[in-house]
Amino acid sequence: MTREHTVRSYDEELSHLTNLIARMGGLAEAQLDGAVQALIKRDSDLASRVIAADSKVDEIEQEVHGFTVRLLALRQPVAHDLRMIVGALKISGDLERIADYAANVAKRALVLNQIPPVKPTAGVPRLGRLVQEIVKEVLDAFVEQDNEKAVKVWKQDEEVDDMYTGLFRELITYMMEDPRNITACIHLMFIAKNIERIGDHATNIAETIHFLVQGTPIRESRPKGESILPDPSQLAKDN
Amino acid sequence: MTREHTVRSYDEELSHLTNLIARMGGLAEAQLDGAVQALIKRDSDLASRVIAADSKVDEIEQEVHGFTVRLLALRQPVAHDLRMIVGALKISGDLERIADYAANVAKRALVLNQIPPVKPTAGVPRLGRLVQEIVKEVLDAFVEQDNEKAVKVWKQDEEVDDMYTGLFRELITYMMEDPRNITACIHLMFIAKNIERIGDHATNIAETIHFLVQGTPIRESRPKGESILPDPSQLAKDN
Questions:
Q1: Ramachandran area for residue A59 (φ above 0: left; ψ -120 to 50: alpha; else beta)
Q2: Could you give the CA distance from residue A93 to residue A97 in angstroms, rounded to a whole number?
Q3: What's the gap in Å between the CA of A37 and the closest CA on chain B?
């Protein structure tokens, strides 16, 4: 009886960990959505709420960290359980970064709301929506432990990089056209970079899910592939 | 006899892990140094070598990841050993990011070498040197398991942020003065941002060392403290 109880309780602990990650993922996703909306609608109240809510994500990360360390110590997990616990630790780090980047987008949205809008920069919301979808998908892949979905997300990183590069060029053009656009365009550039970085962290999570489900690293090299002497026009796309 | 052997072998494994982190740290430090030198001296060969060497750091990260998972499974560590192993996993993630940012600085240095230099931007090398020192100190703190040194590094993050903010303003001024400076200044801005982010990862490592040595998180909130409605001029400093 005692043993059965122990086993059940261990299962409960593992699903508590999965729930923590899912909750953290949901929060990070909402933060990204809020930040992109605040930017599009020039909504400073929403931006402020996103900034204030970042600490909630940090708290869950701390909770995940403490909980995984206790689990490792008390349960001495092996095989899939162990990969799951180490994976949760890594994923929580990526989610914390995603939320952090979202909060930074919201902060820059606040600044942009204090200056006149530049040309219709439809590119930034478009990049935001693409990355939002990717984050949503990778969280689904985690909850469903769906490796195929994770690999799909992993491959989408290239699309994000291409969209970011195009946007970067567009913003440079606006700055060249009129120096009064410079400040706004720089904030938009950093916003775009933050969103692109969120995509990178979603890619990391996809890699972790693959390792977690399959027990091996994703075989092909990362889609963003680094060349030694890159085409300068492509440079903007890497971190 | 067998038991003694097992114990010795476990100690050897733990020190192998510490060595892996120290080696990875040394490489990341060298990458940052190379990138900053390549930028200052407009040395494209050096920049190319830095970019090519990034994969070595990635390889060690993979090795650390595989090794910690095996250690956790086979040795079922507790207390300080467990914190050490989980800490090594986190630190390797930060070091991988540091090297990645250094490689990006080198890539942008390559591009800058193809266009005429802008005004003497002494600020970027200065920021680079400050962050190099911080990375060096935090690696010393890790090797010596020196919590005081780690806390000192942790507090220096504010200095990095202030220097970055000043530099950011200076670069905006150059761009406003002459639109022909825009492309170079944007690369310098992203270089400065990458270096500032390296400082953040050094701060993360300091936090991990504190947890590892003391078994508790650093108490005070992070030095970069997020305000809800930030002064717009300060915005540039957060990620």
A1: alpha
A2: 6
A3: 18
Q: Position A227: which residue type?
A: S
For residues A23 and A57, the answer to whether their CB atoms sit within 8 Å is: no
Confidence category of residue B120, pLDDT binned at 50, 70, 90: low
Q: In this structure, how many other beta carbons lie within 10 angstroms of the beta carbon of residue B33? A: 18
- The tokens 């530099």 sit on which residue? B167
Domains, chain A, in order of start with CATH, read 2-237 (1.20.58.220)
Q: Would you say B28 and B58 are in contact if contact means Cβ atoms under 8 Å apart?
A: no
Which SS3 state, helix, strand or coil, does residue B237 take? Answer: helix
pLDDT of residue A218: 78
- Which member of A62, A86, A176 has the closest CB to residue B69? A86
Amino acid identity for residue A158 in this structure: E
Contact B89 A86 (CB under 8 A): yes
Q: Which two tokens stand for residue A128?
A: 């935001």
Upper half-sphere CA count for residue A225 (Cβ side, 13 Å):
8
Written as one letter, the residue type at A53 is A
- The alpha carbon of residue A101 is apart from the nearest alpha carbon of chain B, in Å, by 7
Identity at B206, one-letter amino acid code? A
On the CB side of A9, CA atoms within 13 Å amount to: 9
Per-residue pLDDT tens digits for B92-108: 999 999 999 999 999 99
Distance CA B137, CA B124 (A): 20
pLDDT in tens, B14-26: 999 999 999 999 9
> Which tokens go with A54?
């970042």
> Using one digit for the tens of pLDDT, what is the confidence trace for A106-122?
999 999 999 888 875 68
Q: Report how far apart, in Å, the C-alpha atoms of A49 and of each of A34, A116, B232 are.
A: 8, 22, 17
Task: Work out the burial of residue A159: count CB atoms within 10 Å of its CB; fewer than 13 is exposed, 13-18 middle, 19 or more buried.
Answer: middle
Can you read off the two tokens belonging to residue A184? 């706004």
